[in-house]
Amino acid sequence: MQPVKPNIGGQAVIEGVMMRGPKTTAIAVRKNEEIIMKTEENRSLSDKYKFLRLPILRGILALIEMLILGIQTLSYSAGVAGIDDEEELTGRDIALALVSALGFAVLLFIVLPTVAVRFIGGSLQSPFLLSLTEGLLRIAIFVIYIMVISSMKDIRRVFEYHGAEHKAVHCYEHDEKLTPENAQKYTTIHPRCGTSFMMVVMVVSILLFSFMGWPGIVQRIVSRIVMLPLVSGISYEFIRLAGKSNSPFIRVLNTPGMWLQKLTTREPDKSQLEVAIAALKSVLN
């Protein structure tokens, strides 16, 4: 029997790629003709508290830790690329950035859709249909948001590195030598992508919120915020399953997220693939 290959996850950053393996996390950032590398050992609360490795709980923890790691890596890559000359983020800086990001997400994807349903779905009486309308509005807002930011030049560069990240991971998962030429032939779409995760979160939220009736607007907003960790945990388990399963049913369920990745990834060039492969090799070593 061949040993099971560990899952490698990643994230595009400014002029670079972050890869996270079982033991280490590596960030590779291109600065002129040089690739600047930074590698750190992974630290997780689940190493200390084993119960956090249980299904659902591990998804909630993974989301929180990836949000924190994402802020740190974006700040680091901006500094290396010469876009941001500020010092390394403190714990207070990270907390403020995390609260700001979550606050923006709550306003845009929770408050706005549930308020808008009052004007769009006024004739609807069924709690399920109201929740479905709210969920479809949330998805529409998310897609429009992605389309708007993808028109920005700097964001397009990040999306190209996102595509490079996926191609490098595909190359690794197909047991090919990690070279830009081998990686280039693969798709920029990957079933374990964070974009797919966000789409799954929105679909799962429709199903869960429909069981909660249709209370007043304040109760709706509060209940959706409170339920968000559970929604994220369930969605995480589905994405893990989608990354391993060859089931046609699972593939169909994951299709909307895969379609959405066509907006959040772009074809990378050779230099961007070199950066993604450098980060991947670092965590594999």
Q: Explain this structure to me?
A:
The protein has 285 residues and is of the alpha+beta class. It has one domain (9-284). Helices cover 64% and strands 9% of the residues. Strands 1-2-3-4 form a four-stranded antiparallel beta sheet. A hairpin with a 2-residue loop joins β1 (9-13) and β2 (16-20). α2 crosses α8, α3 (91-120) packs across α4 and α5 packs across α10. The model has no long low-confidence stretch (mean pLDDT 88).
Any descriptors?
globular; alpha+beta; 285 residues; 10 helices; single chain; 4 strands
Quick summary:
With 285 residues, the protein is of the alpha+beta class. The chain is built from 10 helices and 4 strands; from the N terminus they run ββββαααααααααα. The two termini are 22 Å apart.
Report Rg: 20 Å
Strand order of the largest sheet: 1-2-3-4
- Structural class, by secondary structure, is alpha+beta
Q: Span between N and C termini?
A: 22 Å
**Overall pLDDT confidence:** 88
SSE string? EEEEHHHHHHHHHH
The portion of residues forming beta strands comes to 5-15%
Residue share in helix: 55-70%
- Main sheet characteristics: 4 strands, antiparallel
Q: Treating each run of at least 4 consecutive H or I residues as one helix, how many helices? A: 10
Extended strand count: 4
Shape assignment: globular
Low-confidence stretches: none
The number of domains is 1
